[in-house]
């Protein structure tokens, strides 16, 4: 392994990169034009209209990219530390598909009883249920294989239930709605949705970050961790609840954006070293940068419907996942 | 037991089909019609002689989807599967060009005549579909009357002049109709200029909300599908930016899917609504 870089330097660079991508996300329109002519004429004709597009279409999209990316990066790093397993990731272990199922159930069948505010709550409940199931299935000392297999099973099961729910829903476009939830996207979201998810994500992040030192201790073994005064139960509870809150809220507005939580901690590990605590912040920043960059990528093609963000992250992430499995097999045959 | 039943059913269908044609020659008039697609349901409901339509596709009876639902409440529904069709012992099955080829092939193999309707992309296509079904049903005169009615209603909705307000017809999936689609033709027919000017084989393009606002259409016509039922598709129409634009900068009109589904002669109701909106917009401008 290369010598870890100065953590501050890495974090600062990543912050700068994320901010640059955030600005680009606001300024670059469809087809990749920088401050498009269309937009400039709009400012000339009607400032108010241009402002509307800026604040209600582009800003929420950029902010959601930032928030969701940070959530996926942070929770990916947290789960990998908690499960001491390099393949853990909210998407792969079923948290995201559980969140999608919860959000779908509330969105299509619960709207009569409440407001749109309930959709993130459904997502959170679904993510927590999926994570709890995984934890029960995989036991206290899970092997890599057990976790991944249990995760695949939970993902498949939640995915099937989501499809079933959408097939049974009164929605006329069941097939398209399935695509919406299974392949995430940031297109045409609104500020209202940003405000909905922000508090849940924030609390989730704090819970995951609060486990930082315990995760470090845990990486030395469970006995060492308890000798150092960290209760495994409390750490697990905080990490899982935090992941459920943040990922559940994220998925309930963007759908499932996979593989970010897998790829990002690995990239960061080679920069800042394997210590879980020092991985959390860089992973959150890099996750935000990656999602913002991928979301810029899907805007480049003109004409036809925009590709889904989840497709791009899967195209990047799935080969990476395969490579990771091969590498893991070589190291632990 | 099931196999015997199925075989008997197949045989009986085969026989009724054969005897029907043998006794009445090539121009026999079907008496047991089964329609297995919403689009053919609508045509059959208009054209079939009383009592000859034995079953329709389930959506044909749904008032959200079908302009003729009220005519079909007493006709048993089917789900388009071969087992749904055969018990009615049909001597004609009406379907769509895109109905499962396996179903259509099986029907043809056991000797049940099948007539398919096509997607309409022009007014001529609408007339052609009416003619196809009318002639298959032996109701040519009724078909001609229906076409005359369609033409008269379309004529009544024709608008135009020097002033052609810009319009977008946005459906709740975020799809906007292109000029060369049935709704696109109606937009032009009723005096509007579509802000969408590119074409594709599907007749729909997908501009984002930002693009819609940047095109600054004077009329935002919304093709509503099942209002009040939650879908991401209709959630898109509730986006604050689009809502703000619609209330502040544009006229708007809702076009229920019931009338434009399948592009049948009932699109005249859409044309009438757009024509009325055109009149209102011009009157509003004069008043200003």
Question: Any overview of this molecule?
Answer:
The complex is a heterodimer of chains A (333) and B (288). Chain A has 14 helices and no strands. Chain A has a single domain, classed as ABC transporter involved in vitamin B12 uptake, BtuC (Orthogonal Bundle), CATH 1.10.3470. Helix content of chain A is 75%, strand content 0%. Chain A has helices spanning 7-27, 37-45, 47-82, 95-109, 118-138, 144-168, 174-182, 191-209, 212-218, 222-227, 232-254, 260-272, 276-299, 309-331. Chain B folds into two domains: 2-154, Rossmann fold (3-Layer(aba) Sandwich); 160-287, Nitrogenase molybdenum iron protein domain (Rossmann fold), CATH 3.40.50. Helices cover 47% and strands 15% of the residues of chain B. In chain B, helix 2 crosses helix 5, helix 5 runs antiparallel to helix 6 and helix 7 runs parallel beside helix 12 (267-287). The radius of gyration of chain B is 22 Å and the shape is elongated. The chains are: A mainly alpha (333), B alpha/beta (288). At the A-B interface, helix 2, helix 3 and helix 7 of A face helix 8, helix 9 and helix 10 of B.
Characteristics of this structure?
heterodimer, A: 333 residues, mainly alpha, ABC transporter involved in vitamin B12 uptake, BtuC, 14 helices, B: 288 residues, alpha/beta, Rossmann fold, 2 domains, five-stranded parallel beta sheet, four-stranded parallel beta sheet, elongated
């Amino acid at each position: 392994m290369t010598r870890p870089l100065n953590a501050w330097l890495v974090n600062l660079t990543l912050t700068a990169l994320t901010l640059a991508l955030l600005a680009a996300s606001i300024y670059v329109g469809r087809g990749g034009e920088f401050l498009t002519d269309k937009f400039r004429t709009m400012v000339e004709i009607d400032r108010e209209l241009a402002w509307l597009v800026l604040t209600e279409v582009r800003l929420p999209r950029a902010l959601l990219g930032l928030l969701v990316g940070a959530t996926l990066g942070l929770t990916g790093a947290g789960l990998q530390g908690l499960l001491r397993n390099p393949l853990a990731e909210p998407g792969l272990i079923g948290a995201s598909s559980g969140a999608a199922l919860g959000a779908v159930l509330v969105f299509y069948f619960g709207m009569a009883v409440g407001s749109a505010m309930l959709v993130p709550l459904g997502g959170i409940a679904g993510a927590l249920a999926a994570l709890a199931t995984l934890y029960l299935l995989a036991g206290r000392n899970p092997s890599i294989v057990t976790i991944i297999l249990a995760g695949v099973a939970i993902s498949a099961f939640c995915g099937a239930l989501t499809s079933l729910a959408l097939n049974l829903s009164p929605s006329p476009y069941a097939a398209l709605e399935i695509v919406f939830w299974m392949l995430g996207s940031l297109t045409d979201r609104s500020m209202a949705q940003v405000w909905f998810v922000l508090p849940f994500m924030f609390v989730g992040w704090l819970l995951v970050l609060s486990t930082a030192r315990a995760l470090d201790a845990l990486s030395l073994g469970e006995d060492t961790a308890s000798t150092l005064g960290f209760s495994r139960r409390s750490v697990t509870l905080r990490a899982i609840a935090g992941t459920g809150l943040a990922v559940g809220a994220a998925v309930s507005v963007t759908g499932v954006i996979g593989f970010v939580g897998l790829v990002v901690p690995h990239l960061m590990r080679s920069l800042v070293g394997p210590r879980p605590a020092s991985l959390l912040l860089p992973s959150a920043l890099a996750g935000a940068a990656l999602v913002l960059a991928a979301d810029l990528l899907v805007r480049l093609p003109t004409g036809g419907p925009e590709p889904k963000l989840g497709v791009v992250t899967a195209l990047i992430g799935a080969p990476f996942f395969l490579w990771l499995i091969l590498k893991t097999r070589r190291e632990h045959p | 037991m099931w196999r015997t039943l199925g075989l008997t059913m197949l045989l009986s269908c085969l026989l009724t089909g054969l005897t029907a044609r043998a006794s009445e020659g090539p121009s026999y008039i079907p008496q047991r019609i089964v329609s297995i697609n919403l689009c053919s349901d609508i045509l059959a409901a208009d054209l079939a002689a009383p009592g000859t339509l034995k079953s329709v596709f389930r959506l044909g009876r749904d008032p959200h989807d079908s302009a003729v639902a009220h005519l079909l409440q007493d006709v048993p529904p089917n789900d388009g599967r071969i087992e749904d069709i055969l018990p009615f012992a049909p001597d004609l099955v009406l379907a769509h060009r895109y109905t499962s080829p396996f179903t259509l092939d099986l029907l043809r193999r056991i000797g049940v005549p099948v007539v398919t309707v096509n997607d309409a992309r022009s007014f001529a296509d609408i007339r052609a579909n009416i003619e196809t079904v009318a002639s298959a049903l032996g109701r040519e005169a009724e078909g001609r009357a229906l076409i005359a009615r369609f033409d008269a209603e379309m004529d009544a909705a024709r608008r135009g002049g020097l002033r052609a307000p810009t319009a977008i017809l946005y459906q709740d999936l975020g799809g906007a109709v292109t000029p060369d689609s049935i709704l696109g033709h109606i937009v032009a027919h009723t005096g509007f200029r579509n802000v969408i000017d590119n074409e594709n084989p599907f007749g729909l393009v997908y501009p984002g909300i930002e693009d819609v606002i940047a095109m600054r259409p004077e009329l935002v016509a919304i093709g509503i599908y099942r209002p009040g039922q939650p879908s991401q598709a209709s959630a898109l129409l509730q986006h604050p930016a689009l809502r703000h634009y619609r209330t502040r900068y544009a006229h708007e009109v809702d076009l229920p899917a019931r009338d434009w589904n399948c592009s049948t002669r009932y699109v005249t109701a859409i044309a009438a609504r757009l024509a009325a909106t055109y009149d209102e917009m011009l009157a509003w401008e004069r008043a200003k």
